[in-house]
Amino acid sequence: xxxxxxxxxxxxxxxxxxxxxxxxxxxxxxxxxxxxxxxxxxxxxxxxxxxxxxxxxxxxxxxxxxxxxxxxxxxxxxxxxxxxxxxxxxxxxxxxxxxxxxxxxxxxxxxxxxxxxxxxxxxxxxxxxxxxxxxxxxxxxxxxxxxxxxxxxxxxxxxxxxxxxxxxxxxxxxxxxxxxxxxxxxxxxxxxxxxxxxxxxxxxxxxxxxxxxxxxxxxxxxxxxxxxxxxxxxxxxxxxxxxxxxxxxxxxxxxxxxxxxxxxxxxxxxxxxxxxxxxxxxxxxxxxxxxxxxxxxxxxxxxxxxxxxxxxxxxxxxxxxxxxxxxxxxxxxxxxxxxxxxxxxxxxxxxxxxxxxxxxxxxxxxxxxxxxxxxxxxxxxxxxxxxxxxxxxxxxxxxxxxxxxxxxxxxxxxxxxxxx
Length: 420
Fold this sequence. Notes:
The chain has 14 helices and twelve strands. Helix 3 runs antiparallel to helix 8 (261-273) and helix 12 crosses helix 14. Helix 3 links the parallel strand 4 (81-88) and strand 5 (112-119). It is globular. It has a five-stranded parallel beta sheet, covered by helices on one side. The protein folds into three domains: 2-119, no CATH class; 131-193 and 205-281; 308-417, no CATH class. The protein has helices at 35-44, 50-68, 91-109, 143-154, 170-180, 206-218, 238-242, 261-273, 289-294, 300-308, 327-339, 363-378, 380-384, 396-417, and strands spanning 2-6, 19-23, 32-33, 81-88, 112-119, 131-132, 135-138, 159-164, 186-189, 221-222, 230-233, 278-281. The chain is α/β, with parallel strands linked by helices and 420 residues long.
């Protein structure tokens, strides 16, 4: 599928064709995205870096193309071929970086992404203001970002908090920000992508757009110190960051790769190439979710917010309730057991030991059970090591350790319900 994305009035080069995406607009096109973001920047009079604005434009084009291109229409029912021609302010810089951009998106989504660029004229922003902070931290409404931001504040960090608004989580994000960091700048924005026809639900490129939002505001922070990089905190437990495929059928992006070390490394290389002094870091890459939760288990306010946090992969589809049986829910439930905190979340499928298709025999529950059995039979190292291929050799022992301990938390969860 081919798309052409640009601002209002953008005219691509002759011979460039594809479905049209209007960037930072909301009228006059069947596919629109990003109008609220542009409005926020304009009202805030922020001095954003032009390459950060271009990066966000590309990410918004990608999520719109992702949302509008059904996996079911592809030859194998999953892998798509998507070409994006994007109008940017500096086509030369982005043409030189297109290889890294394609590699990052292909790793994230397991689709084949190609890019081309041409010059576009974006509306001038008033500018004039910077955000006083020393870093940026993503606050999603999930358990890991909740704990991560709490620990950053305890360490004396001064971050801008950036949230990507999702139905059911906006109020939660606001309450977390108010409780954890009442004096910090908290920004909540969504892409508001509109596409005609059916919508692809997997949308693996969402994390690129979330990160691009953070990069935009990181580029506007003050003071900027020559020779230093602005820390960009993406807080995710190491087991889910690596997200080892539990079974052979879960290879590639069938397991999400939002915080995978390879993906973050590609993005950091991309940011450096386009001239942005920003570095994405996951300070919890060597911790399990249970270990993260255990670190705040003695704080009653954190325990209460932990219960309110969102983990479920089907939260919206389940009417803003945790299903209790998807992989993220099982990892969450294992974390509460590891931390010794009573889990009063209230899951739709509470007792995983019930031997029917909704509980013990559900595909995700079976996948965890198979992984636990395989790892115990062939050793965790043999089971988990393939997921670490290509990662720095110096980090592989620590990452293998967190994969092993994360699987142990899942094993404890299954044992507590007699799942076999």
